[in-house]
Structures are given as C-alpha cells and as structure tokens.
Amino acid sequence: MSMLNDWKEWEDFLANRLHQAQDKGMSEGAISSLAHQVGDYLASNVDPKNEQQRVLADLWSVADEKEQQAIANMMVKLVQNNGTEQ
Fold it and tell me: Helix 7-23 vs helix 65-82: angle between axes, to the nearest 10 degrees?
C-alpha cells in the first residue's frame, strides 16, 4: 500500500472510501464501527510510515476501547473535512 507512505495520499484514499460508503447509504454508525476495525487492523499489522501515523499508533496503543472509538471517529471527521475525493 504505497498510499500509506504519504499522509495526504492516505487522507485522500480514506476520503474517497468514506464518500463511496456514504453514497451507498452506509449509516454513520456502520462507518464509525468500520473505522474502529480499520484502526485495530492498522495498529496490529502495519508499521507507521510517517510522523502522523506514528502519533496515531502511539495514541491508539495507550487508548482504551472508548478512546480508540473516539480516535476512529475523529479520523472519519478529518478525512470528511480535509480529504480530497479521487
């Protein structure tokens, strides 16, 4: 996944997927749950490739389940507001 190397590419990739999910009628709750699952997967299986990902990984590693869900929700908001649809 080369998009993991560049934060803006990652943000845009996530924004694109978010908009696809919304266009297909996926609920905010389902998107939130999926974002948490993606966060878990990344934390367990992917080494951070840049400073932003390192910060997220460090925060995720010390967060409890509720805090991890909050991080996931903030990432959804971030890409919704800052990501560019491809």
Answer: 90
What letters, b where the CB count within 10 A reaches 16 and e where it falls short, cover 3-28? ebeeeeebbbbbbebbeebeeeeeee
Question: What are the DSSP calls for 60-76, one per residue?
Answer: HHH--HHHHHHHHHHHH
pLDDT at residue 67, rounded to an integer: 97
Q: How far is CA 22 from CA 25, 30, 33, 34, 43, in A?
A: 5, 10, 14, 13, 25
DSSP E strands, the chain: none
CA distance 52 to 74: 14
pLDDT tens sequence across 44-86: 998 998 899 999 999 999 999 999 999 999 999 999 888 666 5
